[in-house]
Amino acid sequence: MGISNFLYRQMEKNFERASSNSKVNGREKAVPLQRDENALLTFAVWGDPQISFVSPLRSARVFRAVEDLKEADSLDALVLCGDITEYGAKCEYRFVKKLLECTKDSVKHIYAVPGNHDVRLRNHKKQLKRFQNFVASLGNGDTDFKNSYYYTRDLNGCRFIMMGTDMSTFEAAYISKNQLDRLKNDILSAPEDKPVFVFNHQTLKRTNGLPKTFLGKGKWRGSVGRESEKLKNVLSVRKNVFFVTGHLHYCTSEYTYEDCGNFKALSVPTVGVINHGDFKTMTQGYVISVYEDRVIMRSRIFGEGIYAEKNIPNAYIEAVL
Ligand SMILES: [Fe+2]
């Protein structure tokens, strides 16, 4: 048995044990995710599952969250906003595939962007191929086999743009001029009366509570890094752009959503790991519904199958288009 197979078997065994751990909250109060008939589009976004062969508890939490998607009334999409795995290892992606398998009938598309943990340990080209193969291997996975992580999809009139680093980086991202140019073109050519959703793992400098929300570490940490200002300018080229990110492992809070003028910045908590901040409940993510005149973003505790209480800051966000 090869090392990857061996580790995968270990992950399976440890997952079974962790799943029966009482520390993972149950779904006794779960209310299935309903697609609002008046919405043009309803989709879920998860930050940082960070599935790892050293942490079976993360797999157990994400599995509970997946159950929520399985029971959903036809979601248009799930977007994985990076750090899908801890080490970008084959066995980890294989395990994520196993976890997501049961969403084939309830979630139409799964889109994914890479996080620093997905890319940091390997040659850029090789890891890109591994990542694309992983997304394509999901029954409902939707990717684009080109020579970068960047791709776009149009869904019910709304443009989805998936970004990703253009070289192997440890914590920030490298967004090349070419990617910034494509992003600008793709934002400007999207239907004017509909929102554009741009997904990237890291947020912008001094946005969504940085540096506090990355535990106050330095001026750039937690952000996309050097290209932050250039990226901000591109996101501002037209109205109703939603920049959706993960990476901070920070709970639903006053920092989650920021109106940056033409674009809005939504920083999604981690679904698999412990979140920083006051609202500690595990398995948080967002459900986004698009209407003709507004976008509604709701914090959901996927593992428990319920929405976060409205008294939590930014548990319910309404953006008028
Ligand atoms: Fe990250």
Could you characterize the architecture of this molecule?
With 321 residues, the protein is an alpha/beta fold. It has one domain (39-320): Purple Acid Phosphatase, chain A, domain 2 (4-Layer Sandwich). The protein is built from seven helices and 13 strands. Strand 2 (75-81), helix 3 (90-100) and strand 3 form a beta-alpha-beta unit. Helix 1 (3-19) packs across helix 3, helix 2 packs parallel to helix 3 and helix 3 runs parallel beside helix 5 (124-137). The protein is globular, with a radius of gyration of 18 Å. The termini are far apart. The structure holds fe (ii) ion.
**Ligands bound to this protein structure:** fe (ii) ion
Query: What is the CATH third-level topology name?
Result: Purple Acid Phosphatase, chain A, domain 2
What characteristic shape results from the CA principal axes? globular
CATH architecture: 4-Layer Sandwich
Q: Quote the distance from N terminus to C terminus.
A: 55 Å
Structural class of the helix and strand makeup? alpha/beta
- What is the domain total for the residues? 1
Main sheet makeup:
7 strands, mixed
Structure summary, number of beta strands: 13
Low-confidence stretches: none
Helix-strand string: HEHEHEHHEEHEHEEEEEEE
* Gyration radius over CA: 18 Å
- Average pLDDT, rounded to a whole number, is 94
The CATH H-level homologous superfamily:
Metallo-dependent phosphatases
Q: Please state roughly what percent of the residues sit in beta strands, choosing from under 5%, 5-15%, 15-25%, 25-35%, 35-45% or over 45%.
A: 15-25%
